[in-house]
Amino acid sequence: MNVETKIRRGGGLTFPATFRPGDSQAVIGIDPSTLYRWEKKGFIKLYRRAGTTFAVTQEVVDFIRGAGDQLGD
Q1: Cα distance between residue 33 and residue 31, in whole Å
Q2: Per-residue pLDDT tens for 14-60?
Q3: Is there a contact between 17 and 2 (Cβ–Cβ < 8 Å)?
Q4: CA 52, 61, 43, 37: dihedral to nearest 10 degrees?
Q5: Within a 10 A sphere around the Cβ of 40, how many other Cβ atoms?
Q6: pTM
Q7: Are the beta carbons of 60 and 35 closer than 8 angstroms?
Q8: CA torsion angle for 8, 72, 34, 9 (degrees, to 10)?
Q9: Is a pLDDT exceeding 50 seen at residue 1?
Q10: SS3 for 70?
């Protein structure tokens, strides 16, 4: 988890700007397999650099907030 760079969210909560899929449960409460499934369906982008896979927290949160229509809810 990228602890040096954080984004501030309403209510005083802070989240890392990026996170690895293995940390997704602790960071945003989503199983890593869900992130990979969303990426495969084109809903989110997972980035790969120097052998490391990570997600941009704000991108994932934005998807979750607007996911109702895309996921059939």
Answers
A1: 5
A2: 778 899 999 999 888 999 999 999 999 999 999 999 999 999 998 99
A3: yes
A4: 60
A5: 10
A6: 0.71
A7: yes
A8: 0
A9: no
A10: helix
Q: Which of 45, 43, 40 is nearest to 63 (CA)?
A: 43
Residue range 2-25, pLDDT digits in tens: 444 444 555 555 778 899 999 999
Q: How far apart are CA 58 and CA 37, in angstroms?
A: 18
The 8-class DSSP code of residue 73 comes to -
Task: Give 2-66 as a DSSP string.
Answer: --SSEEE-GGG-EEESEE-GGGHHHHHS--HHHHHHHHHTTSS--EEETTEEEEEHHHHHHHHHT
49 strand-pairing partners: 52
